[in-house]
Specification:
Number of helices of chain A: 13
Strand order of the largest sheet of chain B: 6-7-8-3-9-10
Oligomer: heterodimer
Largest sheet of chain B: 6 strands, mixed
Shape of chain A: elongated
Helix content of chain B: 25-40%
CATH architecture of chain B: 3-Layer(aba) Sandwich
Strand order of the largest sheet of chain A: 4-5-10-7-9-8
CATH superfamily of chain B: P-loop containing nucleotide triphosphate hydrolases
Shape of chain B: globular
CATH class of chain B: Alpha Beta
Largest sheet of chain A: 6 strands, mixed, barrel
Distance between the termini of chain A: 36 Å
Helix content of chain A: 55-70%
Radius of gyration of chain B: 18 Å
Radius of gyration of chain A: 33 Å
């Protein structure tokens, strides 16, 4: 232990004799380690963010949407006709489906007094709040009677409310959408961004019947989309299969034909997002690892120069009784000290970089403990791996030649 | 204090039929040709010869820095001819002190630290190292220059630091390769005087030199030529370096 301490002191002194060179080498490692730390932290942050956005899709949800079909590659069949009856049938027959709601969407102008905002208007069923885990921050959700009688009522998203009414209260106020005034019954709880990048607070909800009657005239019961929820996480896939089977029957689609609807589960969406994301992380990590490799080559380069420069010193040490192992250790420790220095500084700079990014982006960053450990272990390993060859070269010097050197 | 393995009463150095060939692409250079040499404990011997005579090769083999191509080398009762590199490193550390022409001190390292160096490779604790290094430097008269680095010392002082470094392990053998080669006459005599004094205390000293004046200080002179020992003579009355120094005209303020 004491010998190790002495060896470290010796290497520090040797390094301090070529400060600029040591500094530049340290810089090489530093950049590599800082890159690794930042990439890992950034990756984790993006992942957390995407996962929390996916959580806003609702738990164990299954999205059913119309899909164009092509028969014989040329003619396009008419758009799928999802209806509220489809929804009712699914809920009745699919044992793994707990709930289902229709959803139709359009862009519309919402006007309140002087205020005027273009937003997304959603026509929804009564299970929508439960499935999407939405709740109102103030006011109420729709009453069953609102659905039955196609009442002209709306619930405003947080952003829309702020645009139209500022911070004031607006429950009971009226907004005009299209030709009709709608009474505001509630304000949605803030929800944030969806994984598809839309602001989920920039929307207005109304009962699906009202949507069809007052906003987008269409055949009775017609909806653009169905959102189902399975009993639990384990039954998502089964529920999805059941929905497909029921809808195929109802839409009279042969088993070998493409259906006129598509089904996506929140699990699938999460998985595909994770896959994209893992690829990206792997790519970035590779680049960071390469920069660390380049840093390691820098260490080797400097150590080789150092061995050449200090050939005579090595000769003296060998002559007065240093064993090959002593010389090997001396240069190896020097290389490790060099890389660890770079590693520690790189870690500090990487963490500061992470902190700055967190501030600039307003994201949640966690200190990646794994990245910290990895950075230190890796930089130490870089020192051993890239320091070994020069150290061995030093240890294998012939004492006579070394003493005679220049 | 030094763990000197000294089995029996045998001689310190025994070379038997030692040859050394250097093989290059062009030719084989026969640097030593079947040399036999015995050196007893307590001798002060000078190996002299012109460059190319084989004296440097002889020095390298005696110092366990090189191996004979043929023949046997027994140092202090131990056959070191075929020992591993590590074993020979230990032999160098325990049995041999080196003094070189170019001093070969570590630059930017203090006298004290330079002298401590051999003890580091022996695993001596820091405090004991410091202690012994101080005593060795004191013995060569440099106790007031402990923290000077080589470039702050004169040639003679540097060589005395080197001698202290060679002595610090209490080796039975001190090998000096042209120890006065870089020194002026006065300083040369000082260093030689120091070596004679050490010899009088029992250390075997082996000087390798091409200068007659230096060889004159040794009790025995081995003359080499073409890789062979040409003559091996005992000098009944070697030159006393201290007396020679005192007889030199004293130029004003010539630094040491």
């Amino acid at each position: 232990m004491r010998a190790l301490f002495a060896a470290i002191r010796l290497s520090l002194r040797a390094l301090s004799r070529a400060k600029v060179r040591a500094g530049l080498t340290i810089l090489g490692i530093l950049i590599g380690v800082a890159a690794v730390v930042i990439v890992v932290a950034l990756g984790n942050a993006v992942r957390d963010r995407v996962l929390s956005q996916i959580a806003t899709l609702g738990a164990n949800t299954i999205y059913v949407f119309p899909q164009d079909t092509r028969s014989s590659g040329a003619k396009t069949q008419p758009r799928a006709r999802l209806t509220e009856d489809d929804a009712a049938a699914v809920l009745r027959e699919a044992t793994s489906v707990a709930d289902i709601t229709p959803q139709s969407t359009t862009r519309a102008q919402v006007v309140a007094g002087e205020g005027n905002v273009s937003t997304t208007v959603l026509g929804i069923g009564d299970s929508y709040f439960k499935i999407m885990d939405f709740s109102v921050a103030s006011g109420t959700t729709f009453a069953p009677s609102d659905f039955r009688t196609k009442n002209k009522v709306v619930i405003l998203g947080e952003s829309v409310k702020r645009e139209l009414f500022g911070s004031g209260d607006c429950i009971g106020e009226y907004v005009r959408i299209g030709r009709y005034p709608f009474r505001v019954v509630g304000i949605l709880e803030k929800k944030g961004e969806s994984p598809f990048g839309e602001d989920q607070d920039d929307r207005v909800l109304m009962p699906i019947g009202s949507f069809r009657a007052r906003l987008v005239p269409s055949a009775p019961g017609r909806v653009q989309m169905l959102i189902a929820q399975s009993n639990d996480e384990a039954t998502v896939d089964r529920a999805s299969a059941q929905i497909e089977q029921i809808l195929r029957q109802r839409h009279k689609i042969d088993p070998e034909d493409e259906p006129d609807f598509g089904i996506r589960t929140s699990t699938e969406i999460r998985k595909s997002n994770e896959a994209t994301f893992d690829t990206l992380t792997a790519l970035l990590s590779t680049i960071a690892a390469i920069s660390l490799l380049v840093g390691g080559i820098g260490v080797m380069n400097v150590m080789l120069v150092s061995v050449t420069e200090r050939t005579r010193e090595i000769g003296i040490r060998l002559a007065i009784g240093a064993r090959e192992g002593d010389i090997l250790t001396q240069f190896l420790i020097e290389a490790i000290v060099l890389s660890l220095f770079g590693g520690i500084l790189g870690l500090l700079i990487g963490l500061s970089g992470v902190a700055l990014l967190a501030k600039a982006l307003g994201w949640e960053f966690t200190i990646p403990v794994r990245a910290v450990v990895t950075a230190l272990v890796t930089s130490g390993a870089v020192g051993i791996i890239f320091g070994f060859l020069p150290a061995r070269r030093a240890a294998k010097l012939d004492p006579i030649d070394a003493l005679r050197h220049e | 204090m030094a763990a000197v393995a000294s089995p029996g009463e045998g001689p310190l150095i025994q070379l038997a039929g030692v040859s050394k060939n250097y093989v290059s692409e062009a030719a084989i250079v026969r640097a030593l040709r079947e040399v036999d040499l015995t050196i007893e404990h307590g001798e002060m011997i000078a190996i002299v010869g012109q460059s190319g005579s084989g004296k440097s090769t002889m020095m390298n083999i005696l110092g366990c820095l090189d191996r004979p191509t043929i023949g046997r080398y027994v140092l202090d009762g131990v056959d070191v001819t075929t020992r591993s590199n590590d074993a020979r490193a230990i032999v160098r550390n325990r049995l041999i002190g080196f003094v070189f022409q170019g001093f070969n001190l570590l630059s930017r390292t203090t006298a004290l630290e330079n002298v401590e160096l051999p003890l580091i490779y022996r695993g001596v604790s820091a405090r004991k190292r410091r202690d012994r290094a101080f005593r060795a430097l004191d013995a060569v008269g440099l106790s007031d220059r402990l923290h000077h680095t080589p470039n702050q010392l004169s040639g003679g002082q540097q060589q005395r630091v080197a001698i202290a470094r060679a002595l610090v392990t209490d080796p039975p053998l001190l090998l000096a390769d042209e120890p006065t080669g870089n020194l002026d006459t006065r300083t040369s005599y000082e260093v030689l005087g120091l070596l004679q004094e050490l010899n009088s205390r029992g250390i075997t000293i082996c000087l390798v030199t091409h200068e007659q004046d230096i060889a004159a200080c040794a009790k025995r002179v081995v003359r080499m030529r073409d890789g062979r020992i040409q003559s091996d003579t005992v000098q009944a009355a070697p030159l006393d370096a201290k007396r020679a120094l005192s007889e030199l005209p004293t130029p004003e303020d010539e630094g040491t």
